[in-house]
Amino acid sequence: MDWDERLLTGVEKIDAQHREMVELATLIRNAMAGGTLSPEVKTALGRLVTHTARHFADEEALMREIGHPELGPHQVMHRKLLAEVTRLGHDLEKGAAMTALGLHNFLKYWVWDHILVEDKKIAATLAAQTRQAGSD
Ligand SMILES: [Fe+2]
Ligand SMILES: [Fe+2]
Fold this sequence. Notes:
- The protein has helices at residues 12-31, 39-66, 71-90, 96-135.
- α1 packs antiparallel against α4, α2 runs antiparallel to α3 and α3 (71-90) packs antiparallel against α4.
- It is 79% helix and 0% strand.
- The chain has a single domain, classed as Hemerythrin-like (Four Helix Bundle (Hemerythrin (Met), subunit A), Up-down Bundle), CATH 1.20.120.
- The chain is elongated, with a radius of gyration of 16 Å.
- The protein has 4 helices and no strands.
């Protein structure tokens, strides 16, 4: 679940934000490894929610700008993921095990399913446009 260069899309700003979020999530996971929820974990989870909301907004703005054809469905996925990570922050009282499981699921669906498949399509749209601009 750690950062891995297979996650790179080639869009610099997106990659920087993804990396920041994965590293923050990894930090939270490691901080919970002892099975306790420290105040630091709560603060870091709050930051992860903020980062996620900002990243999704930035990414959607880019998609709009380049006319990415799958903006609508992509936004729906973002909304679900944001709800998931926000719920994680609210569900802390359920304990470390539930939080760890939720974090694991968020990382799994967000990182491995969403970035690798959906966000890479944004890079593909951008690359196609760059090629098009080059041949005009
Ligand atoms: Fe995305
Ligand atoms: Fe993304």
